């Protein structure tokens, strides 16, 4: 089969529906079909546009499929979704989207479905969503915001006024948020160099040291990335690492560190002096930390595999600890479309809360008196955030919440138990952070 980005996207979508893990599935398919450059970018764009808008796409398609999407062959289902996504969200003319979809039925040996694909798509591409009627608010959110029932209900309960805004939000103004490696160049110099190199735009972000840029291809292929002058990290995520206030000479532990975004920022702040232990429970992800640290040229970082729910006598007492905890990810729906459809089962949620709580207890024991602990998550779930901090403070009266030196961008909700970024209020990812100090 000749390299065909539409076929690659459809094949990856079929596998995604069976196996999950969008990024791995897509990467494997792009490699298998040997796609490069613009074809690779186009296939990736189709794939992620379908995942991001699947609720809306399916609702529209089902208007014209009396037996529903579930009864179709997986390949035909994904051909329909991919074509409608191109016509609706990717500025592909309807005629091109439909004709290419019909050709794909032959590529996937489903030619008997070509008439159905043609007929359904011609109507679906012209469907006016304004005319849709919904059973209730949850269904409206699921369709217009493309979310599964659990996520729609969570948002409806906790953020009733902002639920649809959160679901349709594009973090960081649709740009890629970068962190300049200030040991090599500051944010202003990075912007200048990026613009000189031909990126579409580059400007300082809301968080000190951050840069918002638009690239033609992948930022990871840019020479300045390969030279360790920047790494890719959301602004809100940078803010959490800045709250640690790591200083040269400190002993710092990043307890949940992979793939290493915040570790790089901490390492940069330490300017090569002191010791930074960058730990994660997932061995394969510790490798990602090591390669990121190596690319940036930091020599004072030790990356290791460690389960932070248990004490590890090999770890030293620390001046500063970051717990960027495993969480439900409900703040980064725009970046990780799979999370939109996840089921929020109580048993799994309780297990997650217990993990977060044990990791915090480990951190409390490892921290020196007078030291700083920062707890952060990329969720807007109060149980994982403010309530988790309140419970920690009740167990550990030796800790108190402190206000970090870095200014919080406008729109952050700052309370007794931490600071929250809700995407619709700050323009950044949904994120939570709380800085605490251990008293003597
Ligand atoms: C939100 S991610 C961390 C992102 C990272 N701090 C960064 O900035 O790139 C949470 C991490 O916690 C790790 N994790 C989950 N359970 C853990 C445990 N018991 N001990 C240590 N790490 C754990 C996961 O493997 C995951 O890499």
UniProtKB/TrEMBL annotation:
GO cellular component terms, A-Z: cytoplasm
Main enzyme class: transferase
Top-level taxonomic group: Bacteria
Binding locations of S-adenosyl-L-methionine: 256-262, 280, 307, 324
Catalytic activity: cytidine(967) in 16S rRNA + S-adenosyl-L-methionine = 5-methylcytidine(967) in 16S rRNA + S-adenosyl-L-homocysteine + H(+)
Pfam families, sorted: Methyltr_RsmB-F, NusB
Annotated keywords: Cytoplasm, Methyltransferase, RNA-binding, rRNA processing, S-adenosyl-L-methionine, Transferase
EC number: 2.1.1.176
Regions that span the bilayer: none
Cell compartments where the protein resides: Cytoplasm
NCBIfam families given in the database record: PRK14902.1, rsmB
Name under which the protein is recorded: 16S rRNA (cytosine(967)-C(5))-methyltransferase
The species this protein was found in: Faecalibacterium prausnitzii
